[in-house]
Write a sequence for this structure.
């Protein structure tokens, strides 16, 4: 099993003087599970959570992201029985329903809803809410759970492994193709609530699927934080092909932490889109492990921030076998006093000859107070490889603006056009036109707000 | 009669005095050619009329129908009827030709009459196709990112496509013929000819007479060291083509900082 090379040191040394106090969750928060190995998984994750310390700015991956203001003690789990929430329109606009889909999961605050195309079910496809999967499909789930992300990697990951009931289990058997995309919507609301989820996406040999996963919540009361904590585990089997589109439009009171990793087997192909618009602060670890020859991983990301948002993306492209290919591009635009951090690493293991790795990060700074940190990295321990990277932080090109102005397009619209164009190549890869339009509208709305 | 007038214009770029007392009056329906050797300020003139912020007007005026446009931003100048076909069109990644032009058409409609709705997709598509036919352009151009990876000829043709869609009162063509082969020059010129009519005045900036064979200017001006030194009819262009610019240099002296 491959393990993250950037895992945070466990144990003694990292406890700082003014560390965060613990969450108010107790072992009573652990959900009941009948299957003993799934129960053991949660139990050992809980123990890891208790023994691990919170990361601090002394830990390299957290050096640029300060979580000391996270109100750990204030959060309680959202109890669905408390009140049945109607799905707000911004979460699920009927216009997004026009596009064909093979299945849909709506989870989080309020009503949970899960459906899948019957014909796919007959072929053995599982597309289920995570906790329901623990109850209904324990045999398959216990075989794959924790194989990609180890609960002990850091305190947040351990907590998510122990407590997550929300989430998605997608299992696609050998050689099954899912034509129309699957759609998962995770939504939060309320004050001082914790939303914890766990996604396991497992494609067996020769399987094909496209899944769109959205995370969203209303902007909420800004000084009442919401906490999101999640794990995403992805396995792309031999010659399998997965398109994964993750989009977050969390409210501005959300602090979000995720640990996500994909493992791609021989000749498998992963196409991963990651879009971030929301949250007050977020930290996402996004890793692609190319573990067998011919594995390919592509990651296309975008972020667009305003106010005092702080988005921190930590990506790893791990070439662990010969003749593997990775291609990563993140595009970001920043307004107001917002800040982004992108720290990427292309790692080529000894013997991974014929590696082709690329990473790039392009940033547009739209105000004086905004800041983008762009930190590419290469670590190459094999010969005969092709690796390159690029990072840019700049302003909108004045010549482009002048050109558009000269056609009668006003300044603000010209800027909008350029920024939408900047994101367009990535937006085009969102398979649902309704969802795509929602994000384009959100960008325009952010720009029009000033 | 609607007029574009440039009166005793002086322009500097980063403290270098480039345009030195330039005068020109263009009526709608007229075609003026401005010829001249390199580095005499032809492109500076074009950019200045369009309002590029880099160029500083230190004297004189530019007027449309008697109203000064000097205080106007470039987008306002466009809406006042000025169009510049760029010598080096700028590429806008991720923005399709169609989307860009629809945005421009809608901006123009909105400003001419705020109660007017945006042009419908269908109506716009019809408009774009008819203009593309005029310029013998493939419809697939509409879906390409603006000038991104375009050949020199494709860029220039796209400039004229924009001219055709926006229908300005005054069009300035800044070396639209440069880098084009003979067929492309013909197509571009025929496009401009089809558009010029009585409602559009055209200023053609060029080094060569070739494009003028098609456009048949009413007036030909020779620009040298930041101003017009000779004016005449088409025969002046023929003379320049045959004898080059040396006689101009001899007659009007070498500029100090050429």
């Amino acid at each position: 099993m491959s393990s993250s090379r950037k895992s945070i040191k466990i144990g003694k040394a990292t406890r700082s003087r003014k560390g965060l106090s613990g969450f108010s969750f107790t072992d009573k928060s652990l959900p009941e599970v009948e299957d003993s190995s799934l129960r053991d998984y949660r139990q050992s994750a809980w123990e890891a959570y208790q023994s691990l310390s919170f990361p601090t700015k002394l830990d390299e991956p957290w050096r640029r992201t300060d979580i000391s203001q996270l109100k750990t003690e204030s959060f309680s789990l959202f109890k669905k029985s408390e009140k049945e929430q109607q799905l707000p329109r911004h979460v699920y606009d009927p216009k997004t329903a026009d596009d064909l889909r093979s299945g849909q999961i709506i989870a989080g605050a309020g009503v949970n809803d899960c459906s899948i195309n019957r014909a796919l079910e007959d072929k053995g496809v599982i597309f289920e809410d995570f906790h329901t999967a623990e109850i209904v499909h324990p045999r398959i789930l216990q075989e794959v759970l924790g194989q990609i992300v180890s609960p002990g990697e850091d305190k947040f990951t351990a907590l998510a492994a122990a407590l997550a009931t929300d989430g998605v289990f997608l299992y696609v058997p050998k050689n099954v193709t899912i034509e129309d995309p699957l759609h998962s919507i995770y939504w939060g609301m309320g004050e001082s609530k914790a939303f914890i989820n766990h996604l396991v996406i497992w494609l067996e040999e020769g399987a094909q699927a496209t899944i769109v996963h959205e995370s969203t919540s209303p902007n909420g009361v800004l000084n009442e934080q919401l906490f999101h904590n999640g794990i995403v585990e992805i396995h792309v089997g031999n010659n399998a092909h997965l398109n994964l589109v993750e989009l977050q439009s969390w409210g501005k009171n959300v602090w979000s932490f995720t640990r996500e990793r994909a493992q791609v087997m021989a000749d498998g192909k992963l196409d991963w889109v990651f879009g971030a618009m929301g949250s007050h602060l977020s930290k996402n670890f996004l890793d692609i492990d190319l573990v067998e020859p011919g594995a390919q991983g592509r990651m296309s990301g975008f972020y667009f921030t305003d106010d005092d948002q702080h988005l921190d993306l930590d990506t790893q492209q791990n070439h662990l076998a010969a003749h593997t290919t990775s291609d990563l591009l993140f595009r970001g635009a920043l307004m107001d006093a917002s800040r982004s951090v992108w720290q990427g690493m292309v790692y080529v293991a000894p013997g991974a000859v014929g590696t082709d790795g690329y990473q790039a990060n392009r940033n547009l700074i739209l105000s004086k107070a905004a800041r983008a940190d762009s930190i590419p990295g290469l670590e190459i321990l094999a010969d005969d490889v092709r690796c390159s990277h690029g990072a840019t932080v700049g302003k909108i090109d004045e010549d482009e603006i002048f050109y558009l102005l000269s056609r009668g397009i006003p300044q603000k619209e010209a800027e909008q056009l350029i920024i939408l164009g900047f994101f367009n190549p990535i937006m085009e890869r969102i398979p649902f036109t309704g969802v795509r339009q929602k994000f384009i509208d959100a960008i325009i709305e952010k720009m029009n707000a000033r | 009669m609607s007029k574009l007038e440039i009166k005793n214009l002086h322009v500097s770029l980063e403290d270098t005095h480039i345009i030195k007392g330039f005068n020109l009056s263009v009526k709608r329906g007229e075609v003026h050619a401005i010829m001249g050797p390199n580095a005499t300020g032809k492109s500076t003139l074009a950019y200045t009329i369009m309002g590029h912020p880099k160029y500083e007007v230190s004297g004189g005026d530019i007027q449309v129908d008697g109203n000064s446009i000097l205080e106007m931003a470039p987008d306002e100048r466009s809406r006042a009827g000025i169009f510049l076909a760029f010598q080096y069109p700028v590429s806008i990644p991720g923005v399709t030709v169609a989307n860009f032009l629809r945005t421009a058409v809608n901006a123009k409609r909105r400003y001419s009459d705020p109660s007017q709705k945006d042009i419908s997709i269908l109506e716009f598509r019809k408009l774009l196709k008819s203009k593309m036919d005029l310029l013998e352009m493939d419809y697939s151009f509409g879906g390409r990112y603006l000038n991104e990876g375009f050949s020199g000829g494709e860029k220039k043709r796209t400039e004229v496509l924009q001219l055709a869609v926006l229908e300005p009162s005054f069009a300035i063509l800044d070396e639209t013929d440069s880098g084009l082969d003979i067929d492309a020059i013909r197509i571009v010129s025929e496009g401009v000819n089809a558009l010029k009519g009585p409602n559009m005045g055209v200023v053609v900036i060029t080094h060569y007479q070739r494009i003028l064979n098609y456009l048949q200017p009413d007036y030909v001006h020779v620009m040298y060291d930041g101003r017009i030194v000779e004016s005449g009819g088409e025969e002046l262009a023929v003379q320049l083509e045959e004898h080059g610019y040396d006689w101009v240099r001899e007659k009007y002296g070498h500029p100090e900082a050429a």
Summary: The first strand of chain A starts at residue 76 and ends at 77.
